[in-house]
Amino acid sequence: VELQEEAHKCSEAITGLVKSEVDLKTMITHVCGDFVKLAEKGDFEKDFDIMTSFLTFLHINDKESLFRQCRSVLKVGGYLVIEDYYKRSDEKFTKEEELVLRDEVYCNSSTLPTKEEYVKHLRKAGFTDIQFTDMTEDWSVFVKSRYQTYEASKERQLKVHGEETFKSQLTFFKHVNSLFQNGNGKSATLG
After folding, report:
1. Which of 22, 59, 66, 176 is deepest in the core (most CB within 10 A)?
2. What is the rounded CA–CA span in Å between residue 136 and residue 93?
3. Distance CA 140, CA 185 (A)
């Protein structure tokens, strides 16, 4: 399920390009829409063996409803794998970090769960075997490298994408890097 039409179409195209002994189009269904609303309407009935979310759930404020809907559409024995930001339980975001999360990442810092809150929401929704892997160190290295590499390729990026896109992307990479390098940016894989 993909909310953005363009990304949805891209996913369908990529699935169609994969060479395999089986036709993936018969095994994978792409749906464009708001997952929580579709699940609440009953558009899915225990349809999924596995659900994955990569840097998506941080944008959804109502985590309880989200995880309840995820659980409701998974088959018995199904898996939910999440790679997402989380909030440190021992520290508050600075005002600058809250603005970066809101304006650059499009994440409401007040609804970003701590590790403990993530686990609590998942358990309340009916998930039992919860594994939480802190990926912060890996993400810190990645976002720093991404920012530096993008900034160093300015000339190429300007030619390919133009000044407005270059500046916008550079600003995003810079701010995300600052979140992780300053210690309050956290990322985890949950499964």
Report:
1. 176
2. 16
3. 8
Q: Does 191 score more than 60 pLDDT?
A: no
CA distance 24 to 17: 9
β partners of residue 79: 50
Dist. CA 131–CA 81, nearest whole Å: 9
The pLDDT tens digits of the residues spanning 33-53 come to 888 888 888 877 777 888 888
Query: What is the per-residue pLDDT for 49?
Result: 87
Helix (H) or strand (E) holding 50: strand 48-54
Sort residue 77 into left (φ over 0), alpha (ψ -120 to 50) or beta.
left
Model confidence at 172: pLDDT above 90: yes
Strands 48-54 and 132-134: unpaired
